[in-house]
Amino acid sequence: RSVEGDFEGIGRKGKACVQLARILQYLECPQYLRKSFFPKHEDLQFAGLLNPLDSPHHMRVDEDLEYREGVVLDRPTKPGRGSFVNCGMRKEVQIDRQLNPGLRVTVRLEEPQNPEAKVRKGTVVSSHHPRAVSGLYWGYSVRLASCLSAVFSECPFKEGYDLSIGTSERGSSVDQVTLPSFRHALVVFGGLEGLEAGVDVDPNLEVTDPSVLFDFYLNTCPSQGSRTIRTEEALLISLSALRPHIEEAVKTPRDS
Question: Which UniProt key words apply to this protein (predicted)?
Answer without folding.
Answer: Cytoplasm, Methyltransferase, Transferase
